[in-house]
Design goal:
The complex is a heterodimer of chains A (about 375) and B (about 350).
Chain A lengths: L1 H4 L1 H10 L18 H4 L12 H13 L5 E4 L6 H21 E4 L7 H13 L7 H6 L6 E5 L7 H13 L4 E7 L7 H4 L3 E4 L5 H14 L3 E2 L3 H9 L3 H15 L8 H9 L5 E2 L1 H8 L4 H11 L4 H17 L4 H13 L6 H19 L4 H16 L3
Parallel strand pairs in A: 1-4, 1-5, 2-3, 3-4, 6-7
Helix pairs in contact in A: 4-5, 6-8, 10-11, 10-12, 11-12, 11-14, 12-14, 15-16, 15-19, 16-19, 17-18, 18-19
Chain B lengths: L3 H4 L12 H13 L5 E4 L6 H13 L7 E8 L5 E8 L3 E4 L8 H14 L12 E5 L7 H13 L4 E7 L7 H6 L1 E4 L5 H15 L5 H10 L4 H14 L13 H15 L3 H16 L4 H12 L5 H20 L3 H24 L1
Parallel strand pairs in B: 1-6, 1-7, 4-5, 5-6
Antiparallel strand pairs in B: 2-3, 3-4
Helix pairs in contact in B: 2-3, 4-5, 7-8, 8-9, 10-11, 10-12, 11-14, 12-13, 13-14
The structure holds adenosine-5'-triphosphate and magnesium ion.
Keywords (chain B): DNA replication, Nucleus
Family (chain B): Belongs to the activator 1 small subunits family.
Subcellular location (chain B): Nucleus
Chain lengths: ~375, ~350
């Protein structure tokens, strides 16, 4: 490890890099952040598409009496952002540090450790804000403990948490956040007001993405915003990352390494348009003709020919690195919407998909699994 | 003596011979300053690592090539000591958490926080953030992956991750959501031929186009494998020509023998003989999935068309069992037995 944290070695490397005379890029760090962080909602009203949750939270904000809370929903729907925004509106920037404790899956969260941390934190004296500050932020007389990614806590740790929650309930509020609400034990979940974060719907997500594109001076081709939303499956974080990457791709030539030049260039990036195709490429969508090739190969004909044809297409797809889950998703779509396949065959095929999905999640070999899937479907199509 | 694979490895993005558009994409990301976290996936031997090292060079300059290997000790919650190797330059580090098996969470958790909390000290560093490359990310436990989530967001001013994986299937959705997915397809046979020819020229090998073509085909579009085969052919033959045979690796030859044996006789005694060979392969660290797949694809050309789909079905079935179970040999043997049975039944059916 020495090398990495060793200043001398670092200087040497800097020397090796030669000519770079630039000073450390400190000033506008904001611009150098990934857009997902740059555009993380700063206040509750910035949070898109979770109207119900936000309305309720804003109301509690006024009464200043918060219940314990449980936020759940798929990735990239605004859970972490919402709780951080809420905390900020309650305590303001100065008190945030002393009133909010965030523990996430990257922290040690064994039973005793959580208890210790919560105890120490809860016992710390409440610092008193000045009256002026209190006018700006409600600063209620309790602290907030955020347990982000709570679904990765063991059942035992969760059980132990029940007691802790009760012991300190006068001076602390808990906010648990997770993707899968079923992984939170009942006694814990029942102590909280639950807030479901929905997968972002088309309209709202699109608005947000377009807003960001506009702020960054990125022009979107007709339909590009829709493609972004479709490819990211209700996950706004993904949509924003795709957008950023697509923007960099088309703006590739005009981006300069120099900081000042970058400022200029932000204005004349206008010329480059983000296309539907570039987004699909970035999102890893398999081109339709590749899927069609597979579907064609599966069509009934003599057994030997089917095997040869299917094996060839599948081998190529695997070598091309298409992720098996993506193959499964798109193949499923393609078959489901194919009018010429009788329903009874579709039913049988669905069973195969179910099994294949499970196997992939278990980490089965993608090549064998996809080959098996294609051959079995082909068999069903042939009327077996 | 360095192997060809290492000796002629491209060092920068312009030197990469195939997937030019991807190289451009990586370059534009590297130059933009707001580089996202990446999840780079693709079959093995497709050149993922080479591409990433070249990208790092684009990010930081030649300084990233001065690397050191350090050994660190981590402590688990149960006070177990774990020794762990880290490859590092002053700008980046590279880790393979699957080396420590189920304790990978501790390593990921401690190391990343440590990195994230120390600033880039090199004042002239081109980027404010440091990069941590995680090899075999698809082998990370769920716990370790969960530990990455908030870290990736919270420390994003100081830290970027590049995850390398063969497939995205084992990467949990919240991690996929936090990374830009970069697919690296294996090079085509033609592209492999070009690389071989180029390498051969540098080595002063006599060109043998047909041989190179055969190697490319044999390699299954795995460039690393192709280069190793190419080097082996040249090492073993004084003079190579278009029809010099390509020797398969020992383990593959052995699996070929197993396939022949299975075809020749379907009896419990034969299963026993085969088992000894399977054990042999396993003790030589050939991954069970590789054994099963290679065996399957060696058997397929030997059997009737009517059976092929069925054999694939059972191969996939037992491969899944291998993943889920604990005793690999059971499932390999079960596959062999199943195969014999399918073949036997089919042959009997033909008799009547
Ligand atoms: N509802 C939303 N409104 C505005 N931006 C959002 C919203 N949801 C997600 N985002 C964007 O996505 C990023 C990630 O959101 P956030 O961290 O809140 O997701 P999360 O729900 O906590 O996801 P995870 O389950 O993966 O932790 C934010 O920085 C923001 O850019
Ligand atoms: Mg979150």
């Amino acid at each position: 490890m020495a090398g990495f944290f060793d200043i001398k070695a670092r200087k040497e490397a800097a020397a090796a890099n030669g000519g770079s005379t630039k000073t450390a890029p400190t000033k506008d760090t904001n611009r150098l952040q990934p857009w997902v962080e740059k555009y993380r909602p700063k206040s509750l009203s910035d949070v898109t598409a979770q109207d119900h949750t936000i309305t309720v939270l804003q109301r509690t904000l006024q009464s200043s009496n918060l219940p314990h809370m449980l936020f759940y929903g798929p990735p990239g729907t605004g859970k972490t952002s919402t709780v951080l925004a809420l905390a900020k509106e309650l305590y303001g920037p100065e008190l945030m540090k002393s009133r909010v404790l965030e523990l996430n899956a990257s922290d040690e969260r064994g039973i005793s450790i959580v208890r210790e941390k919560v105890k120490d934190f809860a016992r710390m004296q409440l610092s008193n804000p000045s009256p002026g500050y209190r006018d700006l932020y409600p600063c209620p007389p309790y602290k907030i403990i955020i347990l982000d990614e709570a679904d990765s806590m063991t059942q035992d740790a969760q059980s132990a948490l029940r007691r802790t929650m009760e012991t300190y309930s006068k001076i602390t509020r808990f906010c648990l956040i997770c993707n899968y609400v079923t992984r939170i034990i009942d006694p814990l979940a029942s102590r909280c007001s639950k807030f479901r974060f929905k997968s972002l719907d088309q309209g709202n997500a699109k608005k947000r993405v377009e807003e960001i594109a506009q702020k960054e001076g990125v022009r979107l081709e007709e339909g590009a915003a829709d493609t972004l939303i479709r490819c990211s499956e209700g996950d706004l974080r993904k949509a924003i990352t795709f957008l950023q990457s697509a923007a960099r791709l088309v703006g590739a030539v005009s981006v300069q390494k120099d900081e000042d030049a970058m400022e200029v260039d932000e204005d004349d990036k206008e010329g480059n348009v983000v296309t539907v195709k570039s987004i699909e490429g970035i999102a890893g969508v398999i081109p339709q003709d590749t899927i069609d090739k597979l579907v064609n190969a599966m069509q009934p004909r003599s057994k030997g020919l089917v095997y040869e044809a299917v094996a060839k297409v599948v081998t190529d797809m695997v070598a091309d690195g298409w992720s098996a889950t993506q193959v499964v998703t798109q193949l499923f779509q393609s078959i489901l919407y194919n009018e010429s396949i009788p329903d009874i065959q579709k039913n049988k095929i669905t069973l195969v998909f179910s099994e294949v999905d499970k196997r992939l999640v278990d980490g089965s070999d993608e090549h064998l699994t996809i080959l098996d899937l294609a051959l079995r479907i082909s068999n069903i199509l042939a009327g077996a | 003596m360095a192997l060809l694979v290492d000796k002629h490895r491209p060092r920068s993005l312009d030197q990469l011979t195939y997937h030019k558009d991807l190289s451009e994409r990586l370059r534009s990301l590297a130059q933009s300053g707001d580089f996202p976290h990446l999840l780079v996936y693709g079959p093995s031997g497709a050149g993922k690592k080479t591409r990433i090292v070249a990208t790092l060079k684009e990010l930081y300059g030649p300084g990233v090539e001065k690397i050191k290997i350090d050994s660190r000790v981590f402590q688990t919650t149960s006070n177990r000591k774990l020794e762990f190797n880290i490859v590092a330059s002053v700008y980046h580090l590279e880790i393979t958490p699957s080396d420590v098996g189920i304790y990978d969470r501790v390593v990921v958790q401690d190391l990343l926080k440590e990195v994230a909390q120390t600033q880039q000290v090199d004042q002239s560093a081109k980027q404010r953030f440091k990069v941590v490359v995680i090899n075999e990310a698809d082998h990370l436990t769920r716990d370790a992956q969960a530990a990455l989530r908030r870290t990736m967001e919270k420390y994003s001013p100081n830290l970027r991750l590049i995850l390398l994986a063969n497939s995205t299937a084992n990467i949990i959705a919240p991690i996929r959501s936090r990374t830009l997915l970069v697919r690296v397809a294996a090079p085509t046979e033609l592209e492999i031929c070009e690389v071989l020819a180029k390498s051969g020229k540098k080595e002063g090998f006599l060109a043998a186009r047909e041989l190179e073509k055969r190697i490319a085909k044999e390699s299954g579009r795995n460039l690393r494998r192709a280069l190793l085969m190419y080097e082996a052919v040249h090492a073993q033959n004084e003079k190579v020509s278009d029809d010099t045979p390509i020797p398969p690796p020992d383990w593959e030859a052995l699996i070929g023998v197993v396939a022949q044996e299975i075809m020749a006789e379907h009896s419990p005694a034969r299963i026993l003989q085969v088992r000894a060979k399977l054990y042999d392969l396993l003790t030589h660290c050939i991954p069970p999935t590789t054994i099963l797949k290679t065996l399957t694809f060696k058997l397929i050309p030997l059997i009737d068309d009517a059976l092929k789909a069925d054999v694939i079905k059972w191969a996939a079935f037992y491969e899944h069992r291998i993943r889920m179970g604990t005793k690999v040999i059971f499932h390999l043997e079960a596959f062999v037995a199943k195969f014999m049975r399918i073949l036997e039944e089919y042959l009997m059916g033909m008799d009547f």
